[in-house]
Amino acid sequence: MTSTRKGLLALSPIAVFLIFYLTVSIAVNDFYKMPISVAFIIASIWSIITTSSHTSFKERLDVFSHGAANPDILYMIWIFILAGAFASIAKYIGAIDATVNLTLKILPPQLLIPGIFIASCFISLSIGTSVGTIVSLTPFALQLAESTGQDIPFFVAVVIGGSFFGDNLSFISDTTIASTRSQGCKMNDKFKANLWIAIPASVITLITYFILAQTENYSLSFETQASSWLILPYISVIGMAIAGINVLVVLTAGIIISIVAGFCFTDIHLIDMCNSMGAGISSMGDLIVVTLIAAGMLAIIKFNGGIDYLMKFLTKRINGIRGAQTTIALLVSFVNICTANNTIAIITVGELSRQIATQYKLDPRKVASILDTCSCIVQCIIPYGAQILLAAALAQVSPTSFLPYLYYAWALALMVSLSIIFRFPKPHHIT
After folding, report:
1. Which of 359, 123, 353, 131 is nearest to 238 (CA)?
2. Which of 165, 167, 171 is nearest to 189 (CA)?
3. Are 174 and 200 in contact (CB under 8 A)?
4. Other Cβ atoms closer than 10 A to 53
5. Binning pLDDT at 50, 70 and 90, where does residue 225 land?
6. What is the C-alpha separation between 33 and 367, in angstroms, rounded?
7. Which of these, 210, 172, 231, 173, lies nearest to 376 by C-alpha position?
8. What DSSP letter does each residue of 291-353 carry, written as one string?
């Protein structure tokens, strides 16, 4: 079993990252001054240095490299590459301009923000992935923010919040599958338990957006000469995403449709479209580097016993049903902070959570709901999570700039806390 000293030392790279990134950024009052990649490099070097002296330098590098080369990480990188290419060519040929122009003509200003949130919730619930939703709607939210003279991080944060609504609730979400399997309950039962938390949180968020929309002064002067047919690439991507097609296939098809639309409805040459895609891919370079370095560092943390120590520390003083539920919530949250992957966090603590649930006679449907919801909350707010990094790269803003505007994540955290304190939903509410 990992000792306290070794456990804290294993977790120290996260503290080093936070010190160099958040503390420095706050100190200089500018989150663009300290590149997140540099902060992760410093923390990664620290993680390798603090690894047991009984482990050779080559073995430490092997652990780091295997973590970075995880198939899930490489899959995300493919998404980043294709997302960068599609977002760039869609903008270059005027697809996003045409879509935004049509939206501004149809929707009154007061419905723009609530409309984006509802669309994000619907798409994420349909496709079961926050990444696919962010890829589909972030370029649109970005252009809409620029067209109306509003804050870009705020508009993109609306998409991020809605994307985690479906990530948490959808039957085909990997977090739903992982949480229900780990607790041995049915998906529809976990869904019913989740509704008592997610629906009030989404209503609170939607009301907040309606109130904010009434107070904003929108400047709707955006007009484009782009053909209305140029919305086809963008609409096609959203339609294929809702149909549940693999996100890599969706993005590839989106690129092809954009090229065809560019030929048919603009006078842009193929070489110019290729140059645009190349620029979009290059813009993802920092995101890819951060993803690889973070994955390697987190693998070192797990290798050194950081995850084991967390689980031991959080489970040694459980008291009562509320205490057991709180422990499970904290357990999956802290492991998510260490792994930056909500599905992996659920899988890691799933068996231990089931043991706690059995010992304290917790409803497995409620436990599955807590695991899924808390992991999604953390994944939504950590600045080095794949979803936040992707949104930041597409919008060209700091990953931490979304934090004040992630209303759905904070509302979800409030509802989880209330559900533990007041012990709802009751079993008969779920059945």
Report:
1. 123
2. 171
3. no
4. 6
5. low
6. 41
7. 173
8. HHHHHHHHHHHHHTTHHHHHHHHHHTT--HHHHHHHHHHHHHHHHHHHHS-HHHHHHHHHHHH
The label of the residue with tokens 């958040």 reads 22
| Cβ-contact 197, 368 below 8 angstroms | no
Q: Is 243 helix (H, G, I), strand (E, B) or coil?
A: coil
Q: What is residue 230's DSSP assignment?
A: G
Q: Give the whole-angstrom CA distance, residue 109 versus residue 85.
A: 30
Question: For residue 202, which of 415, 430, 424 has the smallest C-alpha distance?
Answer: 415
pLDDT given for residue 1 in this prediction: 61
Q: Which residues contact 225 (CB under 8 A, 6 or more apart)?
A: none
Gap between the Cα atoms of 124 and 161, Å rounded: 10
Tokens 């590459």 found at = 81
Q: What average pLDDT score do residues 288-302 get?
A: 93
Residue 10 and residue 301 in contact, taking contact as beta carbons nearer than 8 Å: yes
Q: Is the dihedral of CA 310, 421, 410, 30 positive or negative?
A: negative
Per the CB < 8 A criterion, the answer to whether 243 and 123 are in contact is no
Separation CA 118–CA 108 (nearest Å): 15
Taking residues 161-185, report their average pLDDT: 91
Binned at pLDDT 50, 70 and 90, residue 180 comes out as very high
Cα–Cα distance measured from residue 357 to residue 368, given in angstroms and rounded to the nearest whole number = 10
Of the candidates 176, 79, 164, which has an alpha carbon nearest to the alpha carbon of residue 120?
164
Residues 6+ apart with CB under 8 A from 129: 166, 167, 170, 173, 174, 247
Give whole-number Cα distances, 301 to 48, 50, 94, 309, in Å: 9, 10, 45, 11
Q: What CA–CA distance (Å, rounded) separates 316 from 309?
A: 11
Instruction: Compute and round to an integer the Cα radius of gyration of the chain.
Output: 22
Question: Quick one: tokens of 375?
Answer: 């992991």
Distance CA 296, CA 40 (A): 10
pTM of the model: 0.87
Closest CA to 237 of 257, 218, 209: 257
In the predicted model, is pLDDT for residue 401 greater than 60? yes
CA distance linking residue 11 with residue 4, whole number of Å: 11
User: Which residue bears the tokens 């959080």?
Assistant: 314
Q: Which residue has the tokens 């068996």?
A: 351
Q: In the prediction, which pLDDT does 222 show? A: 53
Q: Write down the pLDDT at residue 126.
A: 77
* Confidence grade of residue 257 (pLDDT, cut at 50, 70, 90): very high
